[in-house]
């Protein structure tokens, strides 16, 4: 008993993590297909540590007829080609790219935040996964918003290089190594040196001076959490391999104390509160790698506004920021709408 599951982009950072998480969460799979471009055709990928390996097929030649769920991590250009044909064949697409996130008839889902929105998936038979930096933030905001209604969010992100794919990770590694031999190497993936540096630029610049990554955090938060919430973001690339961190400052309509916020966060789904006002009483990105949780630390009142809370939020961007959220959407879809084969 189980679903016929396709992982498209199976050899990339997120694709491999989706395979790992399908195994870790024992997602019911009766049949598994791993797809990638022709470059990776014939490679073998593993379904986590189950010992089960799957030969990678060329997505161009794959017929999705009779398959139940396709987890996509192939970028917007390839998704534009393949998602419609998978959806039309009756295979529900859960897409990690940004292509469909803001389409009015495509649900954009974080299961801990807006699970009911998935009930509209049949319109296109496509469900969108949010941007990694949005996903962890709305998980942390949700319990606080339900309690005291958020008016405004100011967020600064510290995003790891794995958000830019394997090339981003390779660039940090090589630059960090070469610096000690006096040759930091010219930036390729990033606009400036990333080793021992930070870069206030992710994705492309928009006319108003913000970047597309910052725009995504604004519009996706409004779609997932509440269109009335005002958000302003500064998204920064930092020399960390995996794990996005965020300093979040929140203004509420109603009164909320730090103790209220800590209690709500401690009890909320998907959140691990690690918050002691002492040396080491907080989470850092290195500690979140490989974990499912969205970690929250440094919860405190912000005295500069009437009802303000500031906090620190850390999560594995390849997991809750992408692969885990996608698998959780598949679990939600199965519970609510699909019959196991
Ligand atoms: C990044 N959120 O971190 C973007 C895409 N994964 O680069």
UniProtKB/TrEMBL annotation:
Keywords associated with the record: Amino-acid biosynthesis, Diaminopimelate biosynthesis, Lysine biosynthesis, Methionine biosynthesis, NADP, Oxidoreductase, Threonine biosynthesis
CDD domains per UniProt: ASADH_C_bac_euk_like, VcASADH2_like_N
Biological-process GO terms, alphabetical: 'de novo' L-methionine biosynthetic process; diaminopimelate biosynthetic process; isoleucine biosynthetic process; lysine biosynthetic process via diaminopimelate; threonine biosynthetic process
Binding site for substrate: 159, 237
Pathway where this protein functions: Amino-acid biosynthesis; L-lysine biosynthesis via DAP pathway; (S)-tetrahydrodipicolinate from L-aspartate: step 2/4; Amino-acid biosynthesis; L-threonine biosynthesis; L-threonine from L-aspartate: step 2/5; Amino-acid biosynthesis; L-methionine biosynthesis via de novo pathway; L-homoserine from L-aspartate: step 2/3
Domain called Semialdehyde dehydrogenase NAD-binding: residue spans: 4-121
Residues annotated as catalytic: 132, 244
InterPro entries from the UniProt entry: Asp_semialdehyde_DH, Asp_semialdehyde_DH_beta, NAD(P)-bd_dom_sf, Semialdehyde_DH_NAD-bd, Semialdhyde_DH_dimer_dom
Pfam families per record: Semialdhyde_dh (PF01118), Semialdhyde_dhC (PF02774)
Keyword flag Oxidoreductase: yes
EC number(s) reported in the record: 1.2.1.11
Residues noted as binding phosphate in the record, renumbered to the chain: 101
Reactions mediated catalytically: L-aspartate 4-semialdehyde + phosphate + NADP(+) = 4-phospho-L-aspartate + NADPH + H(+)
One Gene Ontology term of the molecular function aspect: NAD binding
Subunit annotation: Homodimer.
Functional description taken from the UniProt entry: Catalyzes the NADPH-dependent formation of L-aspartate-semialdehyde (L-ASA) by the reductive dephosphorylation of L-aspartyl-4-phosphate.
Entry's family note: Belongs to the aspartate-semialdehyde dehydrogenase family.
Name by which UniProt lists this protein: Aspartate-semialdehyde dehydrogenase
Species, as recorded: Sphingomonas changnyeongensis
Gene name as annotated: asd
């Amino acid at each position: 008993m189980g679903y016929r599951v396709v992982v498209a982009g199976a050899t990339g950072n997120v694709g491999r993590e989706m395979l790992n998480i399908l195994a870790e969460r024992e997602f019911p799979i009766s049949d598994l297909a791993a797809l990638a471009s022709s470059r990776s055709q014939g490679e073998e990928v593993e379904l986590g540590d189950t010992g089960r390996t799957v030969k990678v097929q060329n997505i161009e030649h794959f017929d999705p007829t009779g398959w139940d769920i396709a987890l996509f991590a192939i970028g917007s250009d390839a998704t534009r080609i393949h998602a419609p044909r998978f959806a039309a064949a009756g295979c529900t697409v859960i897409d990690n790219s940004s292509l469909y996130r803001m389409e009015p008839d495509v649900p954009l889902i974080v299961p801990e935040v807006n699970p009911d929105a998935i009930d509209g998936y049949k319109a296109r038979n496509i469900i969108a996964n949010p941007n990694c930096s949005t996903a962890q933030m709305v998980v942390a905001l949700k319990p606080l918003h339900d309690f005291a209604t958020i008016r405004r969010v100011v967020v600064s992100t510290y995003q790891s290089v794995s958000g830019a794919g394997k090339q981003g990770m390779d660039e940090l590694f090589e630059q960090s190594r070469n610096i000690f031999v006096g040759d930091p190497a010219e930036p390729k993936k990033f606009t400036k040196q990333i080793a021992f540096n930070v870069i206030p630029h992710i994705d492309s610049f928009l006319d108003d001076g913000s970047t597309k990554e910052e725009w995504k955090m604004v519009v996706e938060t409004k779609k997932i959490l509440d269109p009335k919430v005002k958000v302003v973001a500064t998204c920064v690339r930092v020399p960390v391999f995996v794990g996005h961190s965020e300093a979040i400052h929140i203004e509420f309509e109603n009164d909320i104390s730090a103790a209220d916020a800590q209690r709500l966060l401690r009890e909320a789904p998907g959140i691990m509160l690690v918050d002691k006002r002492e040396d080491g009483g907080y989470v850092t990105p290195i500690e979140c790698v490989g974990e499912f949780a969205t970690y929250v630390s440094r919860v405190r009142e912000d005295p500069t506004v009437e009802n303000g809370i500031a906090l620190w939020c850390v999560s594995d961007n390849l997991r809750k920021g992408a692969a885990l959220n996608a698998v959780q959407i598949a679990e939600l879809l199965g519970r609510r709408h699909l019959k196991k084969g």
